[in-house]
């Protein structure tokens, strides 16, 4: 699965974003089990109920039984660096060196999860 396909899917998913409050439309594409799960941000008039594109995509993968997330692309017109809450959710389902690609359609930046969230909270099992 090449990066450009993942980015293209993230871009397409941004078209489904429901963001009437922020007007900031985000799309994510999550590669898990060799398949792509897309997500967009979905806002709510009770603002705190809004959810980011990354978490929608990750939860779609996990609810389909794919917990092994290999790579994530996130697209918005301005660079959509994942928020702390999404990074923590990534820490639950991604390896520390999982690749996170952030793009505004022009710039493409690639990070590893450990670079964006150097100290990750994990409960000892
Ligand atoms: N948002 C995302 O979906 N992903 C990000 O990486 C950054 C922020 C959303 C949340 C909210 O709907 C809007 O962008 C503005 O914060």
Uncertain parts: none
* Strand order in the largest sheet: 2-1-3-4-5
The number of helical elements comes to 4
Number of E strands: 5
The value of Rg in angstroms is 13 Å
Q: Indicate the proportion of strand residues.
A: 25-35%
Overall residue-averaged pLDDT value: 97
Bound molecules: tetrahydrodeoxyuridine
**Domain tally:** 1
Supply the CATH architecture: 3-Layer(aba) Sandwich
Structure, described:
This protein is of the alpha+beta class. It has a single domain (about 5-115), classed as 3-Layer(aba) Sandwich (Cytidine Deaminase, domain 2), CATH 3.40.140.10. About 30% of the residues lie in helices and about 25% in strands. The chain has helices at about 5-15, 55-65, 85-95, 115; strands at about 25-30, 35-40, 70-75, 95-105, 110. Strands 2-1-3-4-5 form a five-stranded mixed sheet. The N and C termini lie far apart (about 35 Å). The mean pLDDT is about 95. Tetrahydrodeoxyuridine binds near residues 41, 43, 53 and 83.
């Amino acid at each position: 699965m090449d990066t450009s396909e993942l980015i293209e899917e993230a871009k397409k998913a941004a078209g489904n974003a429901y963001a009437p409050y922020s007007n900031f439309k985000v799309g994510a594409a999550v590669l898990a089990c060799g398949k792509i799960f897309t997500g967009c941000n979905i806002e709510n008039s009770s603002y705190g109920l809004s959810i980011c594109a990354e978490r929608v995509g990750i939860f779609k993968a996990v609810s389909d039984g794919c917990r092994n997330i290999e790579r994530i692309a996130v697209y918005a017109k301005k660079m959509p660096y994942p928020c702390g809450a999404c990074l923590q959710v990534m820490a639950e389902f991604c390896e520390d060196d999982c690749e996170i690609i952030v793009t505004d359609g022009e710039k493409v930046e690639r990070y590893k999860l450990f670079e964006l969230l150097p100290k990750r909270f994990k409960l000892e099992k």
